């Protein structure tokens, strides 16, 4: 059965990331000890739960993986995945429970219990790990994988295998995937709420035949009170009044920022808005990066650069936990 690591209503005294940060670190380290790779992750309304892989129980006869329209895939992912966001997607797949009726606005064929999305990475250069393939035409990123907590252990491996098999028929030959090991905390009126403990991508490196390519570059993230990240591209849209800036502004206003005045330039308003909502500056040490080839003759395709042993447990440094920003984040 599911073993949740989230206890509703848990709070810790002190600053938003003071003693809470120590508690979060302890729980994160529990997931990163030898043997922690025996867990697989599930989601339900943005709350993580974990299953032991040894429990098994997944019934392939009761499930199927099919390509589904983007709209229901997006609704499902935004509702359940911790990021509450949807990337630019080329192929969306649904894991359906065929012995249960579909829910409202879900595709026919069974209840939607998971979504896998192959899409466009924020930086297409990450697809250069496949020197023989044309980025975006023959290689994509596994942008989202979100399974409900009702899906038994090892369901993600089964779903990935079938999604990749179909993607290969569409000309896709290479997939990259990233695993974010850094935890996320959402700030609420009742105090910090634990959103994601971080993970090392065990399903990729030890369950799906991906090659491990190390960590992406370290960077500084602006984490909003709802635990989502305001990425550099979104901030640039506001500063330069580019297409899409209005959606970013609405997102910040919903979190408590005052509306932008008619004469106010984007740079000045963004600085003020981030100060009003209260952001956390997070030093991110980089995501774990994986890649694999799929389809016919996949063993003939090359991967650029060296491959490394896939991690079986990680490390987290206390000083790299999020720090509440009391000033302006740019």
Automatic annotation (TrEMBL):
Q: Where is this region: Disordered?
A: 304-330
Name the domain of life.
Bacteria
One Pfam family assigned to this protein is: Mom
Q: What is this protein identified as?
A: Uncharacterized protein
Origin organism is: Streptomyces endocoffeicus
């Amino acid at each position: 059965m599911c073993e949740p690591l989230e206890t509703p209503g848990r709070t810790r005294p002190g600053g938003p990331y003071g003693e809470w940060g120590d508690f979060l670190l302890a729980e994160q380290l529990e997931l990163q000890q030898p043997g922690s790779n025996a867990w697989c992750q599930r989601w339900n309304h943005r709350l993580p739960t974990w299953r032991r892989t040894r429990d098994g129980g997944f019934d392939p006869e009761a499930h199927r993986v099919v390509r589904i329209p983007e709209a229901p895939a997006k609704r499902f992912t935004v509702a359940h995945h911790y990021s509450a966001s949807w990337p630019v997607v080329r192929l969306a797949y649904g894991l359906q429970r065929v012995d249960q009726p579909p829910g409202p606005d879900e595709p026919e064929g069974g209840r939607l219990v998971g979504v896998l999305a192959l899409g466009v990475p924020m930086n297409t250069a990450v697809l250069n790990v496949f020197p023989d393939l044309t980025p975006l035409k023959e290689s994509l990123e596994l942008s989202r994988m979100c399974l409900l907590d009702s899906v038994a252990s090892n369901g993600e491996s089964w779903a990935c295998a079938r999604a990749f098999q179909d993607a290969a028929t569409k000309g896709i030959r290479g997939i990259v995937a990233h695993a974010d090991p850094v935890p996320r905390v959402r700030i609420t009126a009742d105090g910090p709420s634990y959103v994601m403990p971080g993970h090392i991508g065990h399903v990729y490196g030890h369950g799906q035949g991906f090659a491990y390519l190390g960590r992406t570059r370290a960077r500084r993230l602006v984490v909003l009170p709802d635990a989502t990240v305001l990425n550099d591209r979104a901030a640039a849209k506001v500063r330069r009044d580019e297409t899409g800036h209005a959606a970013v502004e609405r997102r910040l206003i919903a979190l408590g920022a005052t509306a932008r005045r008619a004469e106010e330039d984007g740079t000045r308003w963004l600085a003020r808005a981030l100060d009003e909502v209260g952001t956390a500056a997070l030093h991110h040490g980089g995501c774990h990066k994986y890649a694999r080839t799929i389809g016919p003759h996949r063993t003939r395709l090359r991967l650029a650069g060296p491959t490394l042993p896939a991690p079986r447990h990680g490390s987290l440094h206390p000083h790299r936990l999020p720090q509440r920003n009391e000033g302006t984040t740019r």
